[in-house]
Every structure is written in C-alpha cells, then in structure tokens.
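Exercise 7 asks you to align residues with tokens for two separate proteins.
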Amino acid sequence: MENNWVKVYTTENPVTAEIIKQGLIENDIAAVIMNKKDSSYQTFGVIEVLVNQKDFDAADTYIKSTETE
C-alpha cells in the first residue's frame, strides 16, 4: 500500500464504513477500509475509511453531502 492514503472518515460501525466506502467508489474515488477494532472483543477501536491524499477534498465533500445530522 502506498504511503499517500489519508483518513477521511472514522466510525465504530462496520456497516456505515462500508456504505461510505461504496459511495466513494461509485463517485470514482478510490477508498479502502482499515479495521482497527480489537479482534477478540469487537468493542474496542474504530474503523477508518481511507482515500488517496489527492482525493481527500472530493471525498470530504461527498461525505458531508450525505450526512443527515
């Protein structure tokens, strides 16, 4: 993996992370999930969605446009 991946979204919910990742991919933004949850308990840690550094602004704009809060 190249070193130019940056975190664009963090959640504790794996389904939310997957939805965000798929939305980014559908908008031509390469994205991957980094699961940092403890494998023994699955209650500690977070899941991060990473994008290429050059796509950060577009990804951030997309994520903000989908938030319902």
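Second protein for Exercise 7:
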Amino acid sequence: MPAASHSPWRHLPNAISMLRVLLVAPICWLLWHRQWSSALMLVAVAGVSDGLDGFLARHYGWQSRLGGMLDAIADKLLLVSCFVILAWLGEAPLWLAAIVCGRDLVIACGALLWRLLIGRIYPQPSLLSKACTLMQIVYLLTVLLALAHWPAPDATPFVWLVAALCVASGADYVVRWSHRAWHTRRAV
C-alpha cells in the first residue's frame, strides 16, 4: 500500500467534508419548506458522512489541517442551520437552538482569538465535543423522523442530553484552550 501522503485517495475525507458543506443549502431549503422526509434523508447522509470522513482520515493517516477545519466548518454550518430553522418553525425549542448556537459562537470566537493572539490553530475536537456533535445529529434525526411520520423515539431525553453536552463541551473548550494559551504565551 502506498504511503498515506502519496495515496491518490488522501483527499477523500476533505471531499466528503465539502459534500457536507454543499448539503447545507438543500437541507435548509427542505426544512424551511417542511419537506421532512427529504430533509431526513439528507441529514442522515450528512451524519453518516461525518463519521466516514473522520474514520478514513484516522485509519489511513489522511489527516490534515485543512481536513480538520473543513470538518468543523461543515458540522457547525449544518447543525446551527438545522437548529435555527427548526426552532424558527416551532419544531425545536428556541432555548436549545440558542445553546447550540452559543456553544459554537464561543468556540469560533476562541479560535479567532487564538489565531490573532497566538498563531495557527489546529482543530482538535475532544471526545466530549464529538459526543455533543453525535447527539445533535441523533436529536435532529429523531425530530425529523417524527415530523415525517415515521416511528421515532421521544425526543425529550435528547433535548436535555444535547443541552448538557453543549454546555459541558463548550466549557471544556474554554478551559482546555485557555490553559494552552496561557502556557503557549508564557513559553514565548
């Protein structure tokens, strides 16, 4: 097998992340027009592709700084858009959409500050952050299953789990990256 850096497939995880970015517009359109079944299918594709690109990147050593950034951008665009639209339409709690958006705003502001004050940033999602993303996708799929009149579990436990994971992972990012910033700035 060729070295990971020379494989013709090494850009596949980035292409999959770009596909997720491109899926955001049609998913938003479908949600806005209450085309629940079609939106469900595309959100499911986006959710599976999120796991697939990460698996391929780690398993084959195809990780890159660009890939980490594309993955984070794709996740944030997809999840924030879906939560905002569903909350606007009254299909998800407004307060939950605010927590999801607030967490991502805190992370984005922290990344911007890091870039301005310290330098290049290399996205390193924690297990807590990955669990948060996974539960947001599970929640969206559960809501869309119910809206499309498919058998679906009660979304209420997922509401509280998503809220708790958003708060915990947001706080975790602030603590971990503040600690890193403190030590990085002291070393200079």
